[in-house]
Amino acid sequence: MPQILKEPVRARILQAAETLLYEKGPAGATMREIAGAAGVTPGNLYRYYPGKEQLLAAITRPVLEGLDELVRRHAGPALTLGDRSLRLPLPPGPAGAEQLRAELYARLAPALEDLCRLEEAYPRPMWILCRADAVSGALLEWFYAIIRQVLALLLRPGRVDEAFLERLAAIEGQSFCQGVVELLRQHRGLDGQSRALLIRCYLTVHLEGLGALLHAGFASGAILPGEGNAHA
After folding, report:
1. How many C-beta neighbours within 10 Å does residue 108 have?
2. Judging by beta carbons within 10 Å of its beta carbon (0-12, 13-18, 19+), is residue 123 exposed, middle or buried?
3. What is the number of other CB atoms lying within 10 angstroms of the CB of residue 223?
């Protein structure tokens, strides 16, 4: 006769797991330690969650769902978490580059505000997610794929060495993602106005750099005014 899984026991396991995974990181906390903290036997723990991956998924689900909703809200229904396709219009010239930069500010600033609010709502699951190599690696790969397409669009890969483009995308992808993680640490304790200023300054560092690439591209002829929507 199969044993019935009890929700109070499940809740106790999740609470113990969240505490240990937050304190020790996903790689540091063992299933035996989690079972002991939850007051169940290891065998009983495995009946509820076959492995640490399932526990991690259960704990971080609200954050992943929040991230997915955040992406849909700010990027539109065409782009979801994990989707690596992205289509951006190529600016029609230097004036279009300024317009694109303003649009990126307008989209990214509220998205990062919402990300900070998500961290406030689920602080421990958010940091467990950030420290989970498999999950954070997948998120970084997702962002890297998108930022590579953006750079390919801006720099015209037919005129920029492919290996160079890969290196630049890897640098910017890592830099932006690590910066967002640090932003999630530093925003705590700030009022709304100060947090908005912090986000604005962070975006300025990155977007002004992309703006400089655009202007250099137009000046060198790597980007031609009026070019269409080509992708790599």
Report:
1. 19
2. middle
3. 24
Q: Tell me which residue has tokens 């689920």.
A: 122
Confidence at residue 106, expressed as pLDDT on a 0 to 100 scale:
84
Residue from 89, 83, 114 nearest 103 by CA: 89
Q: What is the DSSP string of 138-181?
A: HHHHHHHHHHHHHHHHHH-TTTS-HHHHHHHHHHHHHHHHHHHH
**3-state percent helix, strand, coil for the chain, nearest multiple of 5:** 75, 0, 25
* pLDDT (tens digit per residue) in 82-91: 666 656 555 5
Residue 10 pLDDT class (50, 70, 90 cuts): very high
How far apart CA 151 and CA 166 sit, in angstroms, is: 9
Token pair 């591209």 in the structure block, residue: 217
pLDDT tens for residues 52-93?
999 999 999 999 899 888 878 876 665 666 666 656 555 556
d(CA 40, CA 97): 59
SS3 at position 36: helix
